[in-house]
Amino acid sequence: MSEFQIKRGDLEPPLVIDISGSTGDLNGVVSCRIIGRIGALRVFVDAAPGEVINSPTSATLTHEWVAGETDVVGEMQVEAEAMWPDDRPQTFKPCGYNIVQICQDLG
User: Which pTM does this prediction carry?
Assistant: First the structure.
């Protein structure tokens, strides 16, 4: 995923981030989290994203929106972080961010 769009205040669809392809066997990952921020405002840290290991090198994480997280119109930067054994973190995308564009609604 590179850009995801949602209207202000909407809670569906969930945010899905693919963390495949840039690492070895993902079955060794101890935990994952997704972090979202707009500017300096940290909007959420999801320490238990729905995680699906599709194959040893393919996985997706899902963030279910909760009230308040999509209230600010603008560009949210999002990254996923996997924790390997011995507290060794790995961030996805390794450079840059996934972008969530929160668009103005008419209501």
Answer: 0.88
